[in-house]
Specification:
Blueprint (H helix, E strand, L loop, with lengths): L5 H9 L2 H11 L11 H19 L4 H17 L5 H14 L6 H16 L2 H8 L29 H42 L13 H45 L11 H24 L1
Helix pairs in contact: 1-2, 1-4, 3-4, 5-6, 8-9
């Protein structure tokens, strides 16, 4: 308490509450402690800090503010384990002893403060600060994902326009995926054709190709042609189906573009705003005219 000078409590009051509590802890010469695990000391520090706020709010001089903090700490120690009647007696005696240090109005304000806080909630103070508590505390660290930074309002779109755009993007992605699938299918059929042709060629035990007679060669060529035609037929069927799928996607995109919603008009602010509104009006008018012609 030796460091709790008028200048010290003034500095505590000038800080924000977290920094003020920490500065008060150093002035009281307390060691650092865990606010969560040592809740008793945290509550006691809060009580002393609130006594400073009370005294300054009532206009106490800084010397008397330091005395109020000392008064609060002594009162909490002296009433530990006492009944409420004994606590009221101790409070009265201490106030009587401070009559020479405080003027009458400040003494009455201090009396009201401790009656309305400490005495009114005396049992709670005794339960928290007067006896040991079994603390079973589990601390879980959770990662909080903050939402992304929103775009400026001027970059926003109407909901109908945004949904329409998402549908167009989805159809474009489906078209790209269909074309990629067509290329993969073509490569797979070519590999299958090569594999079938290789299996047709007879192999000798030594690994060398055997000589073929004219009739065997003709049969081999006919079979190779048959394999090639079957593979081309299968490839052609797939390409026709994929072409229909792509055309269907293009038709859906065209239908969407013709029925695209009209965005809300831009706010007209000055000459630039009027120019933008005029361009938007002409664009919508031209698009509707093209749709009627088709």
């Amino acid at each position: 308490m030796a460091l709790l000078t008028p200048q010290g409590v003034k500095k505590v009051f000038q800080f924000q509450k977290p920094e003020g509590r920490e500065h008060l802890r150093r002035l009281l010469n307390w060691e650092e402690f865990d606010e969560l695990r040592d809740s008793r000391r945290s509550i006691l520090l809060d009580t002393l800090y609130e006594s400073i706020i009370f005294a300054v709010g009532k206009g106490f001089p800084w010397v008397e503010v330091a005395q109020v903090v000392k008064f609060t700490e002594e009162l909490l120690k002296e009433t530990k384990g006492c009944s409420i009647t004994e606590a009221v007696t101790i409070l009265g005696n201490k106030l009587r002893d401070h009559r020479g240090q405080l003027n009458t109005s400040h003494l009455l304000a201090q009396c009201d403060y401790f009656h309305n806080t400490f005495i009114r909630h005396y049992k709670l103070y005794q339960y928290v600060l007067g006896q040991d508590q079994d603390v079973n505390l589990t601390v879980t660290h959770l990662e909080v994902c903050v939402p992304p930074q929103p775009l400026p309002l001027v970059a926003g779109k109407d909901q109908a326009v945004w949904k329409h755009r998402q549908q167009v993007v989805g159809l474009s992605a489906a078209e790209v995926q269909t074309r990629a699938y067509a290329l993969q299918l073509k490569e797979a059929l070519q590999l299958q054709q090569q594999h079938l042709l290789q299996e047709m060629l007879p192999e000798l035990p030594g690994g060398q190709r055997q000589a073929l007679k004219r009739e065997e060669l003709e049969n081999l060529i006919n079979e190779a042609i048959h394999i090639h035609i079957e593979c081309l037929k299968e490839l052609l069927q797939y390409e026709i189906q994929i072409t229909f799928d792509i055309l269907d996607l293009k038709l859906q995109k065209k239908t969407l573009n013709l029925s695209a919603p009209t965005p809300s008009p831009l706010p007209i602010t000055g000459q630039s705003g009027q120019d933008e509104a005029l361009k938007l009006y002409k664009a919508n008018k031209g698009r509707k005219a093209k749709a009627k012609k088709k």
